[in-house]
């Protein structure tokens, strides 16, 4: 893994798979939480998409492969089995802004990523808030949840207020 001064500000990470050596390069100008997310994203490509030799990633979800790598990276950095109980605990014990910052710092991610994770775990949150143990949750992709019309848990605005200043946020 290398940090490089990418000429493009949009390019987050690159994975090049070789026969004997594979490399991941990250944009050294990105924040540490963003680099952590991108490293997890590229590792997810490496593990999940073994028929592809190269990825140039700019953080968009244009293809199913990019979406899949983003979901895997989110689970790697914010595993739902750990994240959901802590989220519920934070909701009852903290004020709405400090809870968001505490979660972001605890997991080493941006506040936007915490919000995105709450959004993407909506159905799981709905189950968890109704007493389903975390190891018994039914995991269903967001698109399938929408297709099936499944109920949704509270969104990130229920748990957090938006920070008036940007802390560890760079769009991830
Ligand atoms: Zn990618």
UniProtKB/TrEMBL annotation:
Domain IrrE N-terminal-like: 23-118
UniProt superkingdom: Bacteria
Pfam families membership: Peptidase_M78
Family annotation (InterPro entries): IrrE_HExxH (IPR010359), Rad_response_metalloprotease (IPR052345)
UniProt-recorded name of the protein: IrrE N-terminal-like domain-containing protein
UniProt organism field: uncultured Anaerotruncus sp
